[in-house]
Amino acid sequence: MQGPTPLPTPPGLDPNLFVEQIIPLIGVLAVLIVGAIALRWLFRSPIGEAIAEGIRMRRQRRYGTDVSATGEHRVAELETEVHALRGQLAELAERVDFAERLLAQSREPERLRAPKT
Predict the structure, then answer these.
(1) 29-81 pLDDT tens trace
(2) SS (H, E, C) the chain
(3) For the whole model, what pTM was predicted?
């Protein structure tokens, strides 16, 4: 008894060679994806925050940059911008009120007329 005869493969195409090249590539991709997920988790955890704080402190000691002063400067800039935006918002509110008053004045004579019967 003989088993089924294998299908002839075209010359130059070896399925074993194809599998031997693809399987390691898939393995490398899987390791990279799992590693990226693990690093993302690490950086977003309290451990990552502690590492970032350590880097900030080392940078401050080495280069003398005050990270808190940079943050305070940024807050001051944002406060200035918020103040300017509030001024613009107040000006726009005054313009809308003025436009509403003008529209109300033009409609009042229509309301005062006696209805025709």
Answers:
(1) 999 999 999 999 998 999 989 998 999 889 888 887 665 666 788 889 999 99
(2) CCCCCCCCCCCCCCHHHHHHHHHHHHHHHHHHHHHHHHHHHHHHCHHHHHHHHHHHHHHHHHHCCCHHHHHHHHHHHHHHHHHHHHHHHHHHHHHHHHHHHHHHHHHHHHHHCCCCC
(3) 0.37
Chain position carrying tokens 């194809």: 18
Closest CA to 71 of 79, 81, 61, 62: 79
Tokens of 34: 């799992």
Q: Residue type at 69?
A: A
Domain definitions of the chain by residue range? 26-65, 67-109
User: What are the residues whose beta carbons fall under 8 Å from the beta carbon of 48, sequence distance 6 or more?
Assistant: 42
